[in-house]
């Protein structure tokens, strides 16, 4: 288990990280999510040794490591959202510079091929698009074969095909035992590949759980209920007033009911039956990470850590 706990940091008079905690298992992809300005890049800069911090603890396989020593003690690769290169040099030359050992030509070429940059690797970086620089940035993060990868929005500048390639690559890396923290605003991508998710808001971790638990337990559940006669809307409004349900949508004999939390469906069904309706079918609608994110980071959010 790798833990980074109680990370805090201020810029001038503003405390931008108040209490960030990340607990991840070896060999998993951890989705580090938050709105613009929540503190993701600042946290990633601290973990990769690029930024100072006020307080924080790192426990790495039972060892206590000072945060500023993480890059010295743990082989890590960091991909910044907008990687910086020597523009007058080629992609091949830039990547070779990142290698901590004397670079082997074939290894560098293979890596450039893996990130889809083989064809352009002898062109100067000044001619690269943002997406090409992002691909090269991914190669730089991987060039020293690190165990731990920190990827800050690795697909933000990529076209759909490029995004798919990089997500497949990240999944492969996890399957080869790498531990990966990844930030992204593309929540469908996070839902597709992350094993665990941490959501931060205003510099604090507000939710952390496995993807499976998140999708099952952390949201107002929605049920589709089919009845023999359509449900009287007044009855549903009375359930909203009694705080049994949060919302509903009626479409003939099928109603979509949003509960207040993840419990209470039996109460709803009892009320319907007590009012003379026959229940024909009850289906739970699968929720998405995007819905959880919006519900948890919205203005009315109760900011409690799970
Ligand atoms: N060098 C800096 N000086 C002062 N404030 C900064 C600096 N860098 C970041 N901040 C502030 O710290 C807060 C967190 O910024 P950060 O870039 O970490 O957020 P983020 O979650 O990565 O946002 P985004 O999703 O937009 O990339 C913001 O309020 C930002 O304005």
TrEMBL record:
<dbReference type="GO" id="GO:0005524">
    <property type="term" value="F:ATP binding"/>
</dbReference>
<comment type="similarity">
    <text>Belongs to the ABC transporter superfamily.</text>
</comment>
<dbReference type="InterPro" id="IPR003439">
    <property type="entry name" value="ABC_transporter-like_ATP-bd"/>
</dbReference>
<keyword id="KW-0547">Nucleotide-binding</keyword>
<keyword id="KW-0067">ATP-binding</keyword>
<dbReference type="Pfam" id="PF00005">
    <property type="entry name" value="ABC_tran"/>
</dbReference>
<protein>
    <submittedName>
        <fullName>ABC-2 type transport system ATP-binding protein</fullName>
    </submittedName>
</protein>
<keyword id="KW-0813">Transport</keyword>
<feature type="domain" description="ABC transporter">
    <location>
        <begin position="2"/>
        <end position="227"/>
    </location>
</feature>
<dbReference type="GO" id="GO:0016887">
    <property type="term" value="F:ATP hydrolysis activity"/>
</dbReference>
<dbReference type="InterPro" id="IPR003593">
    <property type="entry name" value="AAA+_ATPase"/>
</dbReference>
<dbReference type="InterPro" id="IPR027417">
    <property type="entry name" value="P-loop_NTPase"/>
</dbReference>
């Amino acid at each position: 288990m790798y833990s980074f706990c109680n990370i805090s940091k201020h810029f001038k008079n503003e405390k931008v990280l108040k209490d960030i905690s990340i607990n991840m298992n070896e060999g998993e992809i951890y989705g580090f999510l938050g709105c613009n300005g929540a503190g993701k890049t600042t946290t990633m800069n601290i973990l990769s040794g690029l930024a100072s911090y006020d307080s924080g603890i790192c426990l790495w396989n039972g060892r206590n490591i000072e945060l500023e020593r993480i890059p010295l003690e743990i082989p890590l690769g960091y991909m910044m959202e907008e990687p910086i290169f020597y523009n007058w040099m080629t992609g091949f030359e830039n990547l070779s510079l990142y290698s901590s050992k004397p670079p082997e030509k074939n290894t560098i070429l293979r890596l450039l091929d893996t990130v889809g940059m083989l064809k352009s690797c002898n062109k100067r970086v000044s001619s690269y698009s943002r997406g090409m620089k992002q691909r090269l940035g991914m190669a730089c993060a991987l060039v020293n074969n690190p165990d731990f990868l920190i990827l800050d929005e690795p697909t933000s500048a990529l076209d759909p095909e490029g995004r798919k390639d990089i997500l497949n690559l990240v999944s492969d890396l996890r399957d080869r035992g790498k531990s990966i923290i990844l930030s992204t605003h593309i929540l469908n991508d996070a839902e597709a590949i992350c094993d665990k998710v941490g959501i931060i808001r205003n510099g604090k971790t507000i939710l952390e759980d496995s993807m499976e638990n998140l999708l099952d337990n952390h949201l107002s559940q929605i049920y589709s209920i089919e009845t023999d006669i359509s449900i009287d809307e007044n009855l549903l409004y009375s359930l909203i007033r009694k705080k049994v349900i949060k919302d509903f949508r009626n479409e003939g004999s099928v109603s979509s009911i949003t509960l207040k939390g993840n419990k209470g469906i039996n109460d709803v069904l009892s009320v319907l039956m007590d009012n003379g309706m026959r229940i024909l079918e009850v289906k739970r609608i699968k929720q998405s990470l995007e819905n959880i994110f919006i519900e948890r980071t919205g203005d009315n959010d109760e900011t409690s850590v799970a």
